[in-house]
Amino acid sequence: MGGTNVTDGWNWRQPDGNATSAYPPAPPPSANPTSAAGANSSPWWSDALHDPWRDPQAPTAIVVNPVPAPGTPGPEPVVDPDAPRPRGLGRVMLVSLVTALLAGMLGGAIGYVAAVRGGLGGGTVLGAPTGGQAPAAAQRPPESLAGVAERLLPSVVTVQARTGRGVSVGSGFVATADGYVITNDHVVEDSTGPATVVFDDGSTASGPVVGQDPESDIAVIKIDRSGLVPVEFGDSDALAVGDPVLAIGSPLSLANTVTAGIVSALDRTIQAGEPGGQVRYYAAIQTDAAVNQGNSGGPLVDSAGRVVGVNSVIKSLAADEETAGNIGLAFAIPINQAKRVAQDIIDTGKPRRTVIGAQVGGGRAPGGAGGVRLSSVEPGGPAESAGLRGGDVVLKLDGRPLAEATDLIALVRKYAPGSVVTVEYRRGTAQQTASVTLAADVK
């Protein structure tokens, strides 16, 4: 409204009680109230009469400020001290900066505490044990798998034999303190000189093959070395299906390899050998411990660290030996049989075969009832002495059912010469039982 300000009259009362305006007396109203100025200017705002803070006894005061001359500074603006003031940009930035710094300091403190608790605090030596003392080497109980492996590894060797086809690599183990080592016959088969054995510490020794039994797949090497620790032998006849076992050896030339499994089956009759070559028979310990080429001749060990078998052969889906691999079907010669054959070789240089004194016919017995037919018996042999005759069908040997000729041969080889076994057989329609004392046949 130009330079005119309209305000209510702020009054105060003198001590005599008369109201006095805060402003000088207003000039008398214009004589011409209908003039243009008077018509366009009202001394009241619309709700003045209803203002609860206006003193009804105070006269109305209208202050008309003169229009300042051009170039004259205007009146100083009046600012309400209680009115909210807009915050400046600088103040906002300052608050934001302080907040960011505080957040960074808090995050850094949390990270430091986490790092210290995690072993990464400043001044902490990585891996330092509490108290600054180096921890003692972890001790495994002797009966644990690690304890058994630690005890056996110094007695297990890698066997290398030079043949006309190159170098054959297998495994073996120390059987005596004076240097006899047991391995498989097929590891040293056709060797042209001394065999070399490599111990777990990398040291080597050489010696001749002093004897072999191709049918049982056992061979013995004699090395010239002192301070040897022989293995402890267990009892393979005491094994039960499900017993834990370890296989130790050098599969695929990877020395000092230990694998674990269980006894999967017992008296699994095996007829092994390449076509046209040596045929081998034994009633094997079947295990699912991983066994591959190079494990041959190594020990199968029970949970007490005693050798219960000699790893010898695997079943595979491969078409040939070179590509055969582990599928959880491995077979070991029972240690009772292997130990007996090795003892014969060490003592006499020759192995003894256990025989029943009879020839068996090929294939299954006629009639589909199972059993193995004897084609003939040797005069004066164990079978004839027990009353068996050619044409008899042997059904069981010491309670083990027979289905193939291989079963009878392999089971007989398992026993030591002089052992007495019970034979159940069928002659015609009659079923009978006989006790047969097995004999030795020196090759």
Structure description:
By secondary structure, the chain is of the alpha+beta class. It folds into 3 domains: about 1-70, no CATH class; about 140-350, Thrombin, subunit H (Beta Barrel), CATH 2.40.10.120; about 350-440, PDZ domain (Pdz3 Domain), CATH 2.30.42. About 15% of the residues lie in helices and about 30% in strands. It has helices at about 35-40, 90-115, 145-150, 185-190, 335-350, 380-385, 405-415, and strands spanning about 10-15, 20, 155-165, 165-175, 180-185, 195-200, 205, 210-215, 220, 230-235, 245-250, 255-270, 280-285, 300, 305-315, 330-335, 350-355, 360, 370-375, 395, 400, 420-425, 430-435, 440. It has a 7-stranded antiparallel beta sheet. The chain has a 6-stranded antiparallel beta barrel with strand order 11-12-13-16-15-14. A hairpin with a 2-residue loop joins strand 20 and strand 21. The termini are far apart. Mean pLDDT is about 80; it is low at about 1-15, about 20-25 and about 35-40.
